[in-house]
């Protein structure tokens, strides 16, 4: 049975393996910016979240067992602005409802904490994920362009 549980920041390392798969996924699908993902380091990226207290940070792991993490989501909020920073579901579990369950949990949490604006950043080449977020009600706002 798959269950979702919120984890404290000091247990964030349990999502490291799946986060690495997310990083590799983005590195592989990006025609122009794969190198940006290649250089990302889990500990450095997660260090950003250490500045948030437990009231403003939500980390959720979807798991079959203690050692089998199938998905995760990380969100924060400040004042009335929420941000879903990272979501990933193991490839062989996509389409099973895990991503939707994680997203709905985080959207509910952000709404309960008074967030009037909830954002998520998606790589422009990640078309399936963009469509997934659209089905949840997210709308495209801006596009960042880079000259390399």
Automatic annotation (TrEMBL):
The keyword Transferase applies. One of its GO terms (cellular component) is ribosome. Pfam families: Acetyltransf_1. One of its GO terms (molecular function) is acyltransferase activity, transferring groups other than amino-acyl groups. Residues 13-148 form the N-acetyltransferase domain. InterPro entries: Acyl_CoA_acyltransferase, GNAT_dom, YpeA/RimI_acetyltransf. Keywords: Acyltransferase, Ribonucleoprotein, Ribosomal protein, Transferase. It comes from the Bacteria. SUPFAM superfamilies: Acyl-CoA N-acyltransferases (Nat). This is Ribosomal protein S18 acetylase RimI-like enzyme. It comes from Sedimentibacter saalensis.
């Amino acid at each position: 049975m798959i269950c979702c549980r919120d984890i404290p920041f000091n247990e964030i390392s349990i999502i490291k393996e799946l986060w690495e798969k997310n990083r590799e996924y983005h590195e592989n699908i990006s025609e122009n910016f794969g190198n940006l993902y290649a250089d990302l380091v889990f500990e450095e990226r997660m260090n950003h979240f250490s500045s948030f207290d437990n009231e403003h940070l939500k980390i959720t792991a979807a798991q079959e067992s203690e050692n089998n993490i199938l998905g995760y989501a990380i969100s924060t909020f400040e004042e009335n602005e929420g941000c879903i920073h990272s979501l990933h579901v193991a490839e062989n579990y996509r389409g099973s409802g895990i991503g939707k369950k994680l997203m709905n949990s985080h959207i509910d949490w952000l709404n309960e904490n008074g967030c009037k604006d909830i954002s998520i950043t998606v790589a422009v080449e990640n078309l399936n994920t963009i469509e997934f977020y659209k089905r949840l009600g997210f709308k495209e706002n801006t596009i960042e362009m880079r000259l390399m």
